Amino acid sequence: MRELKIFSGQANRPLAKSICNFLHLPLAEITLGKFPDGENFCKIEEDIRGRDIFLVQPTCPPVNDNLMELLIMIDSCKRASAERITAVIPYFGYARQDRKDEGRVPITAKLVANLITRAGADRVLTMDLHSPQIQGFFDCPVDNLYAAPVLQEFASSLPFGEGERVVVSPDVGSIKRALGYAKRMGGKLAIVDKRRDNAMETRQEHIIGGPIEGKVAFMFDDMITTGGSICGAAARVHEAGAREIFVAATHGVLCGKAIEKIRDSKITTLAVCDTVPVPAEKRLPNLQVLSVAPLLAEAIKRIHHDQSISILFDKSDE
């Protein structure tokens, strides 16, 4: 069996270290930095010829820097004769533009997928893609894990009975996800009718289903970026009479004025996974960070041993 080595970019080293801890492996040595003109520099500090290499690097903000660093790491490993290179991308950036919804716009998700495969990645391991069809943009195998077991464990740990819960979909596109959680947790299903005014602004019109009054509302999403949609949905749910509102999302990107919006919102607790690092200045008292390191570590172990990882999808929200 070829030797397993895990390297980390600069985007989320704590997650890479946690994965290594679960696998009882040291984090492999790599030197990353920049030349004086801002170009990225990379040097693999270990012999990786014939090894099975996993590169942990979410393409979170600063997206362009982290993406370029990932591409350079892949190229470095390819030229150092690694046997197999798996790009572990817990959060896949540039995922929003996955189709041409108007004239003269790019399909950026496909472009980035091409860059990663052409750089030399033999496989991609990711989590909760914004659109599942992005898997088909890659010309290599893609394992898209779901954070549903981690988010489900958080929600189930709260001391509320089935009769007190209502699972709220923050928009029509999240109905399937919300329905999955409602079936597993128990409780009614409600949907917030979200209207998008432009790429940056949304508004919440009506609530379908329920009832919500006097209930504890749970909202699940794949990512929170500026916080506008989830905070708007929380405000509408609060107006409908929910006594507490819990939000759980896989990717806490939390850019722009997201922290201010969440701080001023009616959200009781917001839980996000550590696919994207949450710096200390963004850790509000009602913010919890859940780790997906055990899930990613198990997937890496199974991929390394050429075992099926289907069992990791059994609790998904699909």
Gap between N and C termini, in Å?
Answer: 34 Å
Helical/strand content category: alpha/beta
Oligomeric nature of the chains: single chain
The radius of gyration over CA amounts to 20 Å
Global outline: globular
Helix content: 25-40%
The CATH architecture of the largest domain can be given as 3-Layer(aba) Sandwich
Main sheet: strands, sense, barrel: 7 strands, mixed
What would the CATH topology of the largest domain be?
Answer: Rossmann fold
Total strands: the figure is 14
- N-to-C series of helices and strands: EHEEEHEHEEHEHEEEHEHEEH
CATH C-level of the largest domain: Alpha Beta
Count of discrete domains: 2
Number of helices: 8
Uncertain regions spanning at least 5 consecutive residues: none
In round numbers, the mean pLDDT is: 93
Strand order of the main beta sheet, please?
Answer: 10-9-8-11-12-13-14
Approximate strand percentage: 25-35%
Please characterize this protein's 3D structure:
- By secondary structure, the chain is an alpha/beta fold.
- The protein has 2 domains: 4-146 and 293-313, Rossmann fold; 148-290, Rossmann fold.
- Helix content is 28%, strand content 26%.
- It has helices at 13-23, 63-79, 108-119, 148-156, 175-185, 228-239, 258-263, 293-304, and strands at 4-8, 30-34, 40-44, 52-56, 84-89, 123-127, 142-145, 165-169, 188-196, 202-209, 216-224, 244-252, 269-273, 287-290.
- A 7-stranded mixed sheet has the order 10-9-8-11-12-13-14, sandwiched between helices. Strands 1-4-5-6-7 form a 5-stranded parallel sheet, sandwiched between helices.
- Helix 3 (108-119) links the parallel strand 5 (84-89) and strand 6 (123-127).
- Helix 1 crosses helix 8.
- This is Ribose-phosphate pyrophosphokinase.
- The active site is at 194.
- Residues 4-120 form the Ribose-phosphate pyrophosphokinase N-terminal domain.
- Pfam families: Pribosyl_synth, Pribosyltran_N.
